[in-house]
Amino acid sequence: MMTTAAPILAVDNVHVIYGQSILALRGITLRVNEGSIVALLGANGAGKTTTLKAISSLVRAERGRVAQGEIRFRGDIITHADAAGLVRRGIVQVLEGRRCFAHLTVEQNIVAGGYAHRPSRRVLADDLDRVYTWFPRLKQRRRTAAGLNSGGEQQMIAIGRALMTRPKLMLLDEPSMGLAPMLVEEIFEIIRNLNRREGVSFLLAEQNTGFALRYADHAYVVENGQVSAHGTAADLAARTDMASLYLGAIATD
Question: Would you say residue 219 lies in a domain?
């Protein structure tokens, strides 16, 4: 549901450099409106992950930096903000590949996300119950080591852990990676329901353009660190030139 409200996220002419010389982003500009789902599409190495990490400030952990441009969250400049501080302000990133703590239980993985706000024991329990409402399968497996769960369940764990931070904006990097189509659809249905019922806005980098464009409101195509096209998801899905030039390549990302 695309809204007419001011954007929750505004990225303007952002350039990202790794080390001293590798230019990964070359003037990325995009908007995420409050209460919307926005897809970031592009071939492998196009700059999708770097865009998400520039927003969450995780790019700094990889010797990267925003060398030019500006990022705003709800009107406030966050271009060089502390990553942990951004989580407390409502921006959380779910990294590519789930990144679960394999030897910890499902519940221990989920609860780990809740400590960002230093909650009381009662608040932590309430937030955990909320996650289990969205992911009843995880409640059944809460005492199981996370590494023993399927890829789809591990993706649910990662999203559940992110929900424990009470996000306003969730950045998802390749949520469908390595999952069977049935599980991908389940994950995207959960994303849409979280968006509609909880009001969480989403910016997701995705290789499965069919699902991304079906569930997103708006989409941006990234090529060589730049936005090469953007529009409503429906309009991009209908463009045959986009399918031949970009989207076909993304499908094998």
Answer: yes
